[in-house]
Amino acid sequence: MENNSEYQENFSYDYFEEPCETANNRKLEEVVRLFVHSAICVLGLLGNVLVIITYAFYKRAKSMTDVYLLNVAFSDVIFVVALPLIIYNDQYNWSMGTWACKLLRGIYSVNLYSGMLLLACISADRYIAIVMARRSFRIRSRALVYSRVICFAVWVLALGLSIPTLVYYEAYGDSPQYFDYSSNLTEIAADEDTSVGRRVCYFRFQGNETAQLMKVLVPSLQVSVGFLLPLLVMGFCYSSIVVTLLRTRNFERHKAVRVVMAVVVVFIVCHLPYNVALLYYTVVLFELRECSHEDAIAMTLTITETLAYLHSCLNPVLYAFIGVKFRNHFRKILEDLWCIGKRYISSRRLSRVTSEFYVSRKSTEGSVNENASSFTM
Amino acid sequence: MASTRFFTVALLVIFTLNSFLPQTESVSCCLSYTKRNIHCQKLKGYTIQTYKGICDMDAIIFHTKAGKFICADPSKEQTQGTIQCLNARAKSLS
Fold first, then answer.
1. Contact at 8 Å (CB) between A264 and A238?
2. C-alpha to C-alpha distances, A217 to A25, A116, B54, nearest whole angstrom
3. From CA B43, how far away is CA B60, in angstroms rounded?
4. For A28-72, how does the pLDDT look when each residue is reduced to its tens digit (9 = 90+)?
5. Which of these, A91, A105, A83, A104, lies nearest to A39 by C-alpha position?
6. In this model, does residue B83 exceed pLDDT 80?
7. By CB atoms within 10 Å of each CB, which of A94, A122, A162, B7 scores lowest?
8. Residues A238-249: pLDDT tens digits?
9. Does B45 sit within 8 Å of A178, measured CB to CB?
10. Closest by Cβ to A91, choosing from B21, B44, B45
């Protein structure tokens, strides 16, 4: 860049189009990956593993929502484990090869879809429990079977939607055929050093048609099935739930409404910016554009994507730890861990108080509240 | 006092961590084409960019002797002419 002006004098070109490096985005990406993504990975792993442990040891997944929450936690854990591996490989030239590239990107995609669709399932389950409370008794008696079938279907669908990623992602060097006509050998060697390029893990196609189709289809599917569909389902279910809750006379309804709002607002704040950016990126994909513009798009994608990643560590808080029952089970884990550490009875008194509190609370809860127990704070 | 010390330590940790990471080259792609005529005497060679890979448009990237890269539209006659000129030059040299 420094010798640009000197070069222009020699060459009489005052302006030419160079390949765009998106240098600002590269710097931003490095900082974000190092500090934000690592924090998201640690927090996400911690929160979701706690959810899984709670279900595994203290609370057998009884209701439909339990099964969904457990699946969301699994999906988030896998995502959070895949993320640092992707970042590591991106930094070190995809040294693990094409299969690692396909596998990691595939896992990323499967978990993106399954996570989003399961959140929609949770909203539908809560809708059935609260809005259709009378009719739901029959449905919910067979709920566990249904929820397992639905979860299986969600995972299969997520896998199906990830097939293009699994098929077309490859690890390859990004500098293709270079036709060198210079007779100066030292110059070639110097040039090879800089233009050999690094390996990337990205789409690679054989034909022009598939390239054009898939480069548009994959992000479009992600926006429509991985965001708009769950958003519509959640929008419908949670707005009906809020209407129903506001009609009932229940002292805890305001808290429940607040929880619903938190779930929806966090979902929108985390995923809307990324999906808007992704849609815009897909629209301008094949158009001629300025490098500064491309850099801005890339930076927007980096920031909004991070916001979307953040959702995987907020899920345990928004869905599991916000519920009274879940919190009580979780408290028991902490107490048991404390007991193992201390081996003295001093904490036993505390656990009795908690269980009394839990029983008394449960008896005061009405039928709507019982169903909405995952909402109560 | 304690907070400033904390920030100093945090910044130090950040910079040491940052220096351990290898500086990655980002992939560069042509996003627009030059409108100017390119003299093939000043060129060393060229690379073909296709949208079948990481880039999203077709382009010819000319490598100049001064170590610069210029994006050209492969569908333009000018560009094809420059490539032919390079080919002819290579033949005359050999």
1. yes
2. 25, 18, 16
3. 13
4. 998 999 899 999 999 999 999 999 988 888 767 677 888 898 999
5. A83
6. yes
7. B7
8. 999 999 888 887
9. yes
10. B21
pLDDT of residue A356 exceeding 50, the answer is no
Per-residue 3-state assignment (H helix, E strand, C coil) for A97-135: HHHHHHHHHHHHHHHHHHHHHHHHHHHHHHHHHHCCHHH
| Residue A327: band (very low, low, confident or very high) from pLDDT cuts 50, 70, 90 | confident
> CA-to-CA distance for A120 and A367, rounded, in angstroms?
23
The answer to whether A191 contacts B67, with C-beta atoms less than 8 Å apart, is yes
DSSP-H helix ranges across A224-323:
229-247, 253-283, 291-315
Q: Give the whole-angstrom CA distance, residue A346 versus residue A229.
A: 51
Question: pLDDT tens across A189-206, in order?
Answer: 334 434 445 788 999 999
Spatial separation of the C-alpha atoms in residues A126 and A282, rounded to whole Å:
35
Among A residues 272-331, those touching chain B with beta carbons less than 8 Å apart? 285-286, 288-291, 294
Cα nearest neighbour of A24 on chain B: B26
Residue of B nearest to A215 (CA): B56
**pTM across the whole model:** 0.80
Name the residue among A176, A211, A288, A294 with its Cα closest to residue B72. A288
Out of B30, B54, B93, whose CB is closest to A174? B54
> What mean pLDDT, rounded, does chain A reach?
81
Q: What is the pLDDT of residue B45?
A: 85
Paired tokens of A15: 């302006």
Cβ atoms of residues B68 and B47 within 8 Å: no
What does the pLDDT average to over A307-312?
A: 94
**DSSP characters for A30-88?**
HHIIIIIIHHHHHHHHHHHHHHHHIIIII----SHHHHHHHHHHHHHHHHHHHHHHHHH
Token pair 């949208």: residue: B51
| Residue B73 amino acid letter | D
Amino acid at A72: V
- Partners of B69 in the β-ladder: B63
Tokens 């020699």 sit at which residue? A10
CA distance A222 to A227: 7
What is the Cα–Cα distance from A162 to A302, expressed in whole angstroms? 21
Measured between alpha carbons, how far is A26 from A72 in angstroms, rounded to an integer? Answer: 31
Element of type H or E holding A342: helix A324-342
Contact A95, A89 (CB under 8 A): yes
Q: Tell me the residue type at B58.
A: D
Q: Are A255 and A201 in contact (CB under 8 A)?
A: no
A352 — pLDDT class (breaks 50, 70, 90): very low
**CB–CB contact A16 B70 (8 Å):** yes
